[in-house]
Amino acid sequence: MHLAYPAVLAALLFCTGLYGVLARRNAILVLMSVELMLNAVNLNLVAFDVWLRDTLHSGQALTLFTIAIAAAEIGIGLAIVLAVYRNRGSSDIDRLRDTAETDAADAEIDAADAADAASADTDAEPHGRAEPAGKSTNAGTTTNAEATS
User: Fold this and answer.
1) Tens digit of pLDDT for each residue in 5-16?
2) Which among 72, 70, 77 has a CA at the least distance from the CA of 41?
3) In this structure, are residues 106 and 114 in contact, taking their beta carbons and an 8 Å threshold?
4) Short-list 143, 123, 140, CA closest to 132
5) Which residue among 34, 74, 96, 141 is least enclosed by CB atoms within 10 Å?
């Protein structure tokens, strides 16, 4: 068997997986692309094992380890993606960058909380927000007596 055929196929699989990792925004498609890359590596391991006629079949043994690691990786990865999807409503990778907290964002949140606490009156609504001065709660509503007159 020529080594070039499986090596070219593995290179194509790996390049397809690499493109999927770099270009896709959906986390599940990125995980599938990583699996393609791992399968390309498995194909190379088995092809070189057959080509070298290794008596210990170390390429096939390493392939089994890679398959086991890939199964664990996809299980953990899907669990993380599902948890993020339930919390955020999207599995878009670009939106995952919003989960990182920075010191500047914390300072802005603390300043906004301090401003809200300073503007709250003792007659605040149950939600903790004070009603702006000069506005009543039923300013845009009309009563039945006003509508008939």
Assistant:
1) 999 999 999 999
2) 70
3) no
4) 123
5) 141
